[in-house]
Design brief:
Helix content is 35%, strand content 27%. With 398 residues, the chain is α/β, with parallel strands linked by helices. Strand 7 and strand 8 (140-145) form a beta hairpin. Helix 1 (25-36) packs parallel to helix 3, helix 1 (25-36) packs parallel to helix 8 and helix 8 runs antiparallel to helix 9. The longest helix is centred in the C-terminal third of the chain and has 26 residues, at 320-345.
Amino acid sequence: MRGADQTSMRDVPQFADHLVIGGGPAGAMVALRLAAAGRQVVILEKEHGPHHKVCGEFLSPEAVGYLKQAGVDPLALGATVIRKLRLSAGNKVVETPLPFEALSLSRRALDEALLRSAEEMGCRVIRGIAVETLAGKDDVWHASLGNGECMSAKTIFLATGKHNLRGFDRAPARQGDLIGFKLHWQLAPAQTKNLRGRMELFLFDGGYGSFSLVENSVANLCLVVRRTTLRGYAAWPELLAAILKENSHLSSMLEGGAPLWRRPLAISPIPYGYLARDARGPWRLGDQAAVIPSFTGDGISIALHTGALAAQMFQAGKSAADYHRLLHNQLRRAMSLATRLSQAAVTRLGCAAALPALSLFPNAMQWIAASTRIPQSSLVPVEDVFVPSERRCLSEAR
């Protein structure tokens, strides 16, 4: 089979039954589930090949469960196990066991594995194609592509992540003043050992971030900063130096290490607290449907959940409006709690009060971790499990 990154512009069809715009976890999940049901699905991914994304790269148990349903084993891809959570601010550190076992894996590896599964399931994955505009007429959607061509589809699943498609901007977010950064590091051996098995959350005046190991013992540093805070710094090195001066624990973790990229990836704005309620338009998936604050580590699981839920409801004959209403009811409590905590964490008072409060209430971090997850009752049933490689073998046997 030809690889996804080898598809040329000549291969772009003029029509598809179901078009997925965006090849991240949400887009890949809805595509492979629909293809497993015998649907004809095309995924348009604007990037030409594997790439990194601004993300904490945390896989909750819910995310791992969905990935296994899709035939993706994170441990086989090199994911690291996380059992403890460590929070730091200033010169203080608090550590607690997580109420569940989690994993950490780079988006570069994860997204490619999901796209391969989608291809194995029969999806057509087309790379290097950006959708410029989208319009619906007479129950058919028309997508204008970056090369001037047009593609039509009966159904559109919008999975463009935090980037809006022109004409389909999301509603204002409850916390929309944050800018995200991500940088991979090679730590000193002692610090790598210290970080193994842990997810670090660190606070500083004007923002917060996370730090964990992904495959090949690489450390992923990811953080969000208020726009007003960022204006006080001329460049990334100055911002990082100020954060390390304020947070001595993070400074000690990076001591002796080196960044693996010349400069960090960045994204702006990050619409934390956004939760779609659209009664019209395409099916919104992933960050186009809900953007939960990154400290919860539930972003990838929500992306996978939206893909699985949309596929299930579409197969059941439900509308996009039905899907958005149900998803809103499933996520609103966790989203509301997470957004309130995120709004407090980026303030000077919240940063100063967080660790003393957690010292007085040692179970608070575990409660927050458990309360900002997708409710177990909302997860798409495990009996819907399928494995692409098994499906392909059965097809070949016939």
